[in-house]
Design brief:
The protein is an alpha+beta fold. The chain has one domain (52-220): Nuclear Transport Factor 2, Chain: A (Roll). The chain is built from 6 helices and 8 strands, in the order αβααβββαββββαα. Strand 7 (182-193) and strand 8 (196-203) form a beta hairpin. It is globular, with a radius of gyration of 16 Å. The termini are far apart.
């Protein structure tokens, strides 16, 4: 169970299974009307400072990075796009919701177990309220700060199939749960959707769980080779 099938913040690591690192068999419906990014303060991240040479992507990535450090879950949601996932084209071990032939529609969430779950708009908004807005200022660990940190960008593939992952970490605390605060590590994966870059998949997990799957999650999550992106 992952966030009670990614709908709540309770987290049970479960077994590790090998799988794939991105969704396949995906098509995108029309983009929803939503906020384009935070506008209430000077940006800490700029497209010009983005560490990859893709101006169109960097513009969207800067909006995301600033939304994350501002704790603006609505802005993050506005940068994401729902997809349609045809179970006939997918591996059931990687997509556990494909236990029967059907199509799934929603927002893709990928776990350290290499499983991908598809959430409704309501579920994804709820998850973002936790992942983006529940930073605990009192949490401490070996990484020192609990604040939202943008670690950099991991590039996957090349050419027309290239995708990017904006990698982040933060100490989070679900005030509605009895579970203690903990460090989370994740990514927001950008894909080309209708000729624009948008979040098509999100990697989610406790830092300690990613350590079960990767030797060094801070450098190996997504496709590794994470290029640092310091704030301006």
């Amino acid at each position: 169970m992952v966030f009670a099938a990614l709908g709540a913040c309770a987290y049970d690591p479960g077994p590790i299974r090998p799988g794939v690192t991105a969704a396949t068999g995906v098509s995108a419906p029309g983009a929803p009307a939503a906020p384009s990014g935070p506008t209430t303060t000077a940006p800490a991240f700029t497209a010009e400072g983005c560490p990859v040479d893709d101006p169109a992507f960097c513009q969207q990535a800067a909006l995301l990075a600033n939304a994350l450090v501002l704790g603006d879950g609505d802005a993050v949601f506005g940068l994401a796009r729902a997809g349609r996932f045809d179970c006939a084209d997918l591996d059931e071990e990687t997509f556990p919701q494909c236990s029967r032939p059907r199509a799934l529609e929603g927002y893709a969430i990928h776990t350290y177990q290499d499983e991908t779950f598809v959430q409704s708009s309501r579920q994804f908004r709820r998850l973002l309220r936790f992942l983006v807005e529940a930073v605990d200022p009192d949490y401490e660990d070996e990484l020192r700060t609990s604040a939202m940190q943008i670690l950099g960008i991991s590039t996957c593939g090349r050419g027309d199939t290239r995708t990017y992952h904006v990698v982040y970490t933060a100490g989070l605390n679900d005030r509605e749960s009895t579970l203690p605060p903990n460090r989370f590590l994740g990514t927001y994966g950008f894909e080309r959707r209708d000729d624009e870059w948008a979040i098509g998949i999100s990697y989610v997990g406790l830092y300690t769980d990613w350590q079960l799957a990767l030797d060094d999650p801070l450098t190996q999550i997504a496709c590794g080779h994470i290029e640092p992106w310091p704030s301006g």
